[in-house]
Amino acid sequence: MCASPNDIRIPADLLPNDGRFGCGPSKVRPESVQALADVAGTWMGTSHRQQPVKDVVASVRRGLADLFSLPDGYEVVLGNGGTTVFWDAATFGLIEQRSQHLVFGEFSSKFADAAAAAPHLQDPQRIETEPGTHPVAQAAEGVDLYALTHNETSTGVAMPIERPANTDGALLAVDATSGAGALRWRATDADVYYFAPQKVFAGDGGLWIAVCSPAAVERIERIAASGRWVPASLDLLTALENSRKDQTYNTPALATIFLLDQQLQWFNGNGGLEWAAGRSDTSAATLYGWAEASDYATPFVADPAKRSPVVGTVDLDASIDAPTVSNVLRANGVVDTDSYRKLGRNQLRIGMFPAIDPDDVAALTRSIDYVVGELR
Fold it and tell me: Number of structural domains, the chain?
């Protein structure tokens, strides 16, 4: 007889040391939290216009330049509000007339929706594929910005950054919210590579960061000079000018900036992007290898080349209720393994960001096997 979900207790020797596997907000390393606590009395509640905070913002900008090996002329720009706000800012400050969007999940559709709603822009072009796959950008007449997504958080699909041929003069903008810092890329492959710190960078939300090429900086400056009306909080030129002063236009969350800087120091102190990406690669090999060998689990993304190393999606057999598995795991201290709600699949979704110990991913698979064995 199968056990009641409420009665299942996973043996301690099977459990991960840290049970946080969320895809955002993600696990924050205890060392970073302790570092923040150590300076809380002189950091939290202080002015973001004063030198101590500006020094940390400068450290963040240098750390990102080092992590991504940015060439001369590339700039790191920061603003408040997260990626959702950046999409709105981009409709004012990056797209001149028309954009093309690759849509293959919930989050990659949001920038397209923002551009479609902007009354001063032409209707965007959408190239859409089913979740679990990704489309490819195509050169199109009149498109001045091509919008890609490096990692689709809702589906666990990662895609390479490839600039379409014959698109000279157009910008390539990449949403890297859940991939930046753990997926390999070259700065010259994109003009705007933007993200938020609450995933790979193990911080908190409320901030957007954009790595901008000289061409993107020129676009921002040219649109600003054109007279187009832009709300001050969404003005990319204002964000650029403030970032050059190592500050944000309005008050940021100081804890977010501090935790981001701690994660960058950890990455760069251990080998940079290759080291961070390697940790996620190890976790992904464990998760997908387990699912492929399982008699009840299957990787949702059929093509191994498209499987994300930072967000793993695994379908379960119809005889096993994935929400029940997640609930049992949560009752045992293993949290945030639920599938993305709008995808509507009998699925687990596992964060595999660099802060998550690869050994804990291996322990998670053993815990899942134990739970399923008890439920059968």
Answer: 2
